[in-house]
Amino acid sequence: MTVIVRYAPSPTGRLHLGNARPAVLNWLFAQRQGGQFVLRLDDTDTARSTEEFAQGIETDLAWLGIVPDRKARQSDRFASYDAARDRLIAMGRLYPAYETADELDRKRKRARALGKPPVYDRAALSLTQEDKARLEAEGRKPHWRFRLDGRPVKFLDLIKGEQTVNTASMSDPVLIREDGTYLYTLPSVVDDIEMGITHVIRGEDHVSNTGTQIEIFEALGGPVPVFAHHNLLTDSEGQGFSKRLGSLSLAQLRAEGYEPLAVAIMAAITGTSLPVEPYASLADIAEKLDFSMISHGSARFDVAELAGLNARIVHALDFAAVQDRLGAKGEGISEPVWLALRENIARFPQFLPLYEEIFVSATPLIADEDRDFIATARDLLPPEPWDGDTWGAWTGAIKAATGRKGKALFLPLRRALTGRDEGPELRALLPLLGRKASLDRLS
Predict the structure, then answer these.
(1) Which residues have C-beta within 8 Å of that of residue 65, sequence separation ≥ 6?
(2) Do 408 and 428 reside in the same domain of the chain?
(3) Where does motif 'HIGH' region map (predicted)?
(4) Which end of the chain is more exposed for a tag (fewer CB within 10 A), N or C?
């Protein structure tokens, strides 16, 4: 059996770190199993779904390194949903209900007042054809509910283990709105059946939905996929991410210069027993991450942890990996320059400004009390050629001539040569600056 997973976002906003988590976990599982990854845009909400958001989702996934094997849109598949609707109606599993939102709210409040669960009472099942005709003559349009079996639905969750959802304690779910549009539930099941989805990997907030959906799978005669419900990614305060609020959108993280691999690692590894550390690729994570490693507790994301991870990844990038990214502005920048500066940036876009500051527009900083010291240092500057040992030989001579050591020796030299109090190791930087530029800055 070929493993087939699906990631099914709604194009009603940009992807954020929270909904990148199921995308990455589905992708890693498909890679580990040698399976297929389907991107299915759940765009039946025509009022909020936009083409801009749809394209944005594909852009964000590609940035993470996720390239779907297949793509589909629910808006192209209404004929399949209509056929399933008609089958369920004929079977007596889908029935019309005419209560307004206010009437349903009053029913729930009465049930609570009586100490009963606020479950729909199935009053619509008692309506006669005359009752329905009268209600429709009044201008009411039905919404359509799926009649649950009302039984314990058991399934083995790949992450949470044995699960039981008792649909007897649930209201018959509305599958079709009054205006004839579909809610998520029915199209999702129909698509999973027709697309041959073998595994549904999604957030733990869908566990109760799974009981409902399994009954719909069975009613339609389709194979029930294997389910895995992972913990949800939250912010540092335990709050969920929101597309509406733009919480840590992938577009924002990309614009701020974070490495896609760092973001993917955080989306996948947070809330697992694996350490948050650099991995060579998504394939490398796929080899190591097993669902047994996913915690049953919270998966709290820390921006500082992402920043630290991102810096470690950047610091390990070799020159071949960044040459194209430097573009035209990086012409003339050599591998030794990249190696000398990379440890001093946390995100790649910080490199060119740092290069410009140190090699092009540096303004030497020489305090009045250090002028004699700097003049001595200038006089002791050795002739070229220079290499990695030049810095040590030069500062050794300065120390012998002036008696300075430690910070009093090194900081004035750094300020004069780079215009900064901190920065790249001068042992590597000095040969790159060269003797002429160094003499100019020490003047």
Answers:
(1) 260, 261, 264, 281, 282
(2) yes
(3) 9-19
(4) N
d(CA 21, CA 27): 10
- Peptide bond between residue 118 and the one before it cis (omega within 30 degrees of 0): no
Domain containing 151 — which CATH number? 3.90.800.10
| 245 has a pLDDT exceeding 90 | no
Nearest to 390 by CA among 355, 426, 351: 426
Q: Report how many domains make up the chain.
A: 3
Q: What is the pLDDT of residues 267-321, one digit of tens each?
A: 999 999 999 999 999 999 999 999 999 999 889 999 999 999 999 999 999 999 9
What is d(CA 254, CA 346) in angstroms, rounded to the nearest whole number? 14
Counting Cα atoms < 13 Å in the Cβ hemisphere of 37 gives: 21
CA distance 211 to 153: 6
pLDDT of 248: 80
Q: Residue 227 in contact with residue 210, Cβ under 8 Å?
A: yes
What single letter denotes the amino acid at residue 220?
L
Q: What CATH number is associated with residue 389?
A: 1.10.10.350
Beta bridge partners, 38, equal: 6, 70
- Which tens digit of pLDDT belongs to each residue from 342-396? 999 999 999 999 999 999 999 999 999 999 999 999 999 999 999 999 999 999 9
- Alpha-carbon distance 297 to 22, whole Å? 16
Determine the Cα–Cα distance for residues 99 and 110; give it in Å rounded to an integer.
15
Neighbours of 363 (CB within 10 A): 10
Q: How far apart are CA 385 and CA 375, in angstroms?
A: 21
DSSP 8-state assignment for residue 273: S
Reported pTM: 0.91
Is 405 assigned to a binding site? no
Is 159 found in the same domain as 122? yes
